[in-house]
Amino acid sequence: MLDIETLTAVEILDSRARPTLAVTAGLPGGVTARAGVPSGASTGSREARELRDGDKARFGGLGVRRAVGHVNGEIAAAVCDRSFASLAELDAALIELDGTPDKTRLGANATVGVSMAVARAVAVAAGRPLWQSLAPAGVTPRLPVPHFNVVNGGVHAPNRLDFQEFMLAPLGAPTVAEAVRAGAEVYAALRGELTGLGLSTGLGDEGGFAPEIDSPEEVLALLVTAIEAAGYQTGREGIAIALDPAASEFYSGGAYHVAGQTLSSDEMIERYAEMTVRFPVWSIEDGLAESDWDGWERLIGRLGDRTQLVGDDLLVTNPAIIREAIERKAANAALIKLNQIGTVTETLEAMRLCREAGWAQMVSHRSGETEDSFIADLAVASGCGQIKSGAPARGERTAKYNRLIEIEAVAHLPYGLAG
Q1: What is the pTM of this model?
Q2: Which residues pair with 39 in a beta bridge?
Q3: Residue 407 and residue 377: Cα distance in Å, rounded?
């Protein structure tokens, strides 16, 4: 049985100097565990809802004292000194207590913080690493391939670049430690390339460089140059490239607006097709807008046999939406974000659906992060084989990669893409 003795929350800062919350759960025997809650900037319209205070006199209205109050008050009163059969039963109680489809009342930032903190406390009480405690029955844990966001654009950076993320994926690395080394070495080489061109090496929200470039193809060419300058092979045997255009952000009036061009869905698809031919692009996340379902189906038909096509804003880690997308064949992979859905149990259910459908999954951080490394353990536990946590720089990003290195050092687990 799961007995929660104490539950407390405080308002803290995320990596963008915006408020979020940290939740601490206490179990019998003096066991305690803490979780820091992430927050996104590029968000899908159907995500579970954060609760913000709206008081313009504090943090421009972004404070989270109401969410903190819900944890310390209503949620604690409902779950403390009560026995639960499992984390799943606790999460079900949180969902019922909130009573809304998208956790608007209590706030997904409150519910996910409680769920994460209790999940970690359960692992501590059992004397097991979090990844082992979270692993679903019948799933083999796996160390994931890290995807490093080394160039930022879109809402993550104050530049002209419409595409949001350009990532390095060391698919050919033999271990997590070697993958992290490769990412760091190419990141350093890229800094040198940008400096040599007189471009800014200032950073975006996720630690990637934010140069004044508007053409995604120009960025891809720079990445190829940096990979080779660092002494690595490009492509799936070495270092490949993954994109997150976050197309919902540049979609309006039924068209995509990229670097001064206006493109239809089919024209956008063909642009991606050309990119995969010219450059070692292996994965494209949110290549089309969340409302462009017909376009997604055509994108799968055009590129799905050779390219990972990841739904993020399209799917928002929501099991019901993922079921619909599987039926419609509107993607072949899902991005997984705990705070998009609001509990650990619902996140694991979304991953189960993907796994059974033969879809790939990539566990993800958010643009507003804390030093919490929960998602590293989640990626290992689920056996999904992929994670992204930003650049190989800045403590809130490297905390996740360093946690993977620590797990690798003590656990004999397979490494690499799933399947």
Answers
A1: 0.97
A2: 368
A3: 8
The whole-angstrom separation of Cα 301 and Cα 266 is: 11
β-strand pairing of 240-244 with 281-285: parallel
Q: What are the tens digits of pLDDT across the range 326-365?
A: 999 999 999 999 999 999 999 999 999 999 999 999 999 9
- Which token pair is 275? 């990119």
Neighbouring C-alpha atoms within 13 Å toward the C-beta of 23 = 32
> Given 103, 337, 388, 400, which residue is catalytic?
337
| Residue written as token pair 């039924």 | 254
CA–CA distance, 290 with 316 (Å, rounded to integer): 10
Is 206 considered catalytic here? Answer: yes
Cα–Cα–Cα angle for 345, 348, 352, nearest 5°?
135
Residue 193, SS3 per DSSP: helix
> How long a stretch of residues is the chain?
419
Q: Torsions phi, psi of 386, nearest 5?
A: -145, 145
Say which residues have a Cβ less than 8 Å from residue 252's Cβ, sequence separation at least 6.
none
pLDDT for 53-79, tens place per residue? 999 999 999 999 999 999 999 999 999
| Share in percent of the chain as helix, strand, coil (round to 5) | 40, 20, 35
Q: 90 near 118, Cβ under 8 Å?
A: yes
Instruction: Give the phi and the psi of residue 67 in degrees, each rounded to 5.
Output: -65, -45
To the query of whether residue 388 is one of the catalytic residues in this protein, the response is: no
What angle, rounded to 10 degrees, do the helices at 344-357 and 108-126 form?
Answer: 80
| Strand-pair partners of 387 | 146, 363
Two tokens, residue 85: 């059969």
Q: Which of 185, 193, 206, 369 is catalytic?
A: 206
